Amino acid sequence: MTHPSSGETPESAPALSAYAALPEGNFASTDLTRGPWHPDHQHGGPPIALAARCIERAAAALELTHVARLTANLLRPIPIAELAVEVQTDYAGRNVAHFSARMIAGGKEVARFTAVAQREAGLEIPADLPGHPLPQAPRSLAQSPPAPFLFASKITGYHDLIEGRIAQGVAFRGPSAVWFRLQHPLVAGEATSALARVAVAADSGNGISAILDFHRYIFVNSDLTINLLRQARGEWICIDARTLLGPDGGGLAESNIFDEQGLVGRATQSLAIRLRD
User: Vertex 150, ends 14 and 204: CA angle to 5°?
Assistant: First the structure.
């Protein structure tokens, strides 16, 4: 397997994961992380999921197994290159801990993260509470047809890392819901966690609910916040998203997150909008 910093992965050695762990604790990025905005830059989902993987390992060491919130601040475009992730425990109590993390590429900090992790414990709640049972995805996985991706191309990228199915609407043409599944591991040789699967999918809320012409406008999100009321289950994650635009070049993408059992949480993204050059 090769892990180039740009360009296509040679056909003789296709990427089989988004990242490969390196002996010194860093990660080599593969072409499966490539996003739609620039051929040398990653889609936001994979690096956010990589940071989530590192944070949840720090939380698990404290026996805190549910990451209830993850916020990513994307400071710079993240290159398809070697990445380092540094995690710090800011506060750890008996049942809740707060974490922060930095992602570094080429000696520069490219993203910052904060997270809240909780201790899980079985708890019975009344069956007739408002909003319960939890809502289901707009359409089940079995009823959802395959979803083509607008920015799919012959160059290996994020569209090759995941597969999708349309649960509602038309992707990239306004409010829509899409089921996502990773076709390759996040990190080579590792099982991908539920939190990482959610993160890979959640950052696409902005894209699948786009209401502007992709060829005329750039509408990049500079952050992502995920709030989870429980851990997701199963390989498939549904993102039910919509985009709202302000009058001065700003916008908001908001998503409900489902697995096959029902609502898992929600995500929000702040958008910076401009015309393409």
Answer: 80
